[in-house]
């Protein structure tokens, strides 16, 4: 029987509870899910791609059909190399839609057989983003409940914040 492999690409700097919620939902839907961290030339990342992969590995360890990887270059090329036909993206609010639509249509233009599937994270996480988590942590605010506990610890260590 054909297996449906999905790629969940992103920056994941760092993985949030919103990402994790989506990963859990998608792991129930697809045969295999590859969480793919973009090795990107972002100017001011908090974590290196290797550190992001380590944190993701930790938080998806209980999901046997989920693996974590990095990718460079075009997403559709990477997805093809993994035998995937689905690109998974989370949509939190209408404001995400325009950017996601552009990316999905560009990816379709590049690879017509690749389908982008949008999923909704739990409403509780609809305001959550890695960028805001980084900002709040840098400014000394609490990020409890926004990221997995192991990630919270690593953010504290990285920013040298005490409890
Ligand atoms: O978490 P992010 O930063 O919103 O993820 C963006 C990501 C990684 C999905 C996007 O930047 C991407 O796919 N980059 C790879 C380059 C690419 O394929 N670009 C053309 C398609 S839009």
Order of helices and strands: EHEHEHEHEHH
Structural class: alpha/beta
Strand element count = 5
Roughly how much helix do the residues carry, as a percent range?
Answer: 40-55%
**Helix segment count?**
6
Strand content: 15-25%
The span between the termini is 51 Å
Strand order of the largest sheet: 3-2-1-4-5
Distinct ligands, ions and cofactors found in the model:
4'-phosphopantetheine
What is the average per-residue confidence, as pLDDT, rounded to a whole number? 95
| Global shape | globular
Keywords:
single chain, 163 residues, alpha/beta, 5-stranded parallel sheet
Short description:
This protein has 163 residues and is α/β, with parallel strands linked by helices. Helix content is 40%, strand content 18%. It has 6 helices and 5 strands; from the N terminus they run βαβαβαβαβαα.
Write a structural description.
- Helices cover 40% and strands 18% of the residues.
- It is α/β, with parallel strands linked by helices.
- α4 links the parallel β4 (86-90) and β5.
- The radius of gyration is 16 Å and the shape is globular.
- Bound molecules: 4'-phosphopantetheine (PNS).
- 4'-phosphopantetheine binds at residues 9-11, 38, 74-75, 103, 106-107.
Layout of secondary structure:
Blueprint lengths: L4 E6 L6 H11 L4 E7 L10 H11 L6 E6 L3 H7 L4 E5 L3 H17 L4 E5 L10 H9 L10 H11 L4
Parallel strand pairs: 1-2, 1-4, 2-3, 4-5
The structure holds 4'-phosphopantetheine.
The site of 4'-phosphopantetheine (PNS) has 9 residues, from strand 1 and helix 4.
